[in-house]
Fold each of these.
Amino acid sequence: MDAETGAILALQILALCSIVAALLAYLMRQSRNATDEYETRNKRHVLVTSCDTSVGLQIAVALYEAGYKVFAGLLDPCGMSPSMKILRAIEQQREKEEDGPVDASYGNPQDPEVRAHRQIVPLELDSTREDSLRACLDAVRAKLPAGEDGLWAVVHTGGLALPGVIERQPSSAWESMLRHNLVAPLRTARMFIPLLRVKRGRIILLGDSTTSYGTKAGTGLVAFSASKKAVEGAADALKSELQSSGVDVVLLKPPPVNPLILYSSPVLKTSDVESGIVSSEGTWTAPVSTQAIQNSLMPALTSPCPRMSYEMVARSRLFCK
């Protein structure tokens, strides 16, 4: 082998080694980033304001299953509402998992680190009342780990849909929907902004679902739709107002599901003895697909620079304003 051929071969070997080293460094960095993101995510605490609604309960459960510690707002956290029955069933299932064999793979729900953080903490909350919001704020602060004084996100899932033709619907129904659908999320945001500012977290609000629900949705839901459209405008303005504080505002656009179902109490499945169908305790039918929740909620929570709004759709198509 002459000197020139040897030099070329040496350069080729050096280039190959450089490529291998760069690839290894990239894989190690990706693994470290994934671990850091996982650990950071599990240290984050989220408040879901109205778990008495079907959509609120489903969002709280999705966050719990993703490894977050969830403060679940309920009108009566000590009662026997359908939501509390479902949450108790989830807690019992968690206890069974902890007693079972542990899978050491990172991110598995049975992993000890996930167990340490994954939790649903029921708290009394009526987001239409200032005193209830203040009491919930104090309760959240008291239940945060030592040295923590911040929330990563507040997801406002409260809502009220009262159907009625506008010509015959009483004004009191409009006022109730405005109080639940517009005033309540603004009150909630105002109360929890100090905790969100600490973590440079985010406020997540639910927008109007009547447009995607279909042309018949407008019948009997005019006032409801008006209140939810106002939420969308408020979210846009609030995002601009809070930009300097580091708190982000994200809007979730509900799927084409009847809002009367989204904002109603969960309906528990019952056993049918004659047909032989037996439902376990705390089972129910969620109004939105799991994939639709994941495609919208997870990016809204985890993206460093989230979009203004996300559609809650089953396919991977996200809507951005």
Amino acid sequence: MSLPVTKKSKNDANREESGVDLSKEAKGLIDKILGDVSKKSATKQIIIGTTSGWLTGFVTMKVGKIAAVAVGGGIIMLQIAAHQGYIKINWDKIQKKAEKITDKVEEKVTGEGPKLLDKVERYVDKKLDKAEQLLKNGESRTRRWYHSITGEKSFKTTELQFFLASFCAGLALSVVTVN
């Protein structure tokens, strides 16, 4: 009795056949043109090596430039689209995802996850960055809040304000970390 034979589809058979044929044809063509390079004279070896090196470098540079233009152009187009309002990027979500990945990598490398102090430090940093950004942008809510507390019409930071902000941050950090 004969063993059952699995039937291949026409496309699979054609792909398999053409893949084998192309590789055999390419190898045959290279062998016809170059033959065994080690048996050729030193001059021919130098010419073949130089030509193949130049060709490889040329193709690599062209492909590299095309890839760089494509990636760079894509990034520029995304930035323009975001600036024009066509794309809205949720940076908070991206940052949270990056922090989760960082925590996983740190856990794999060190064998233990991030400590509570590291998480608190990141949280305080984010909040201080947001407060700084609000103050720099001159948000009206921040201005109203500052004016309601101080009674001044213009906002100018002083060394005392930086000291008080850092003192409060240090106090909060010590309250969280002390056992």
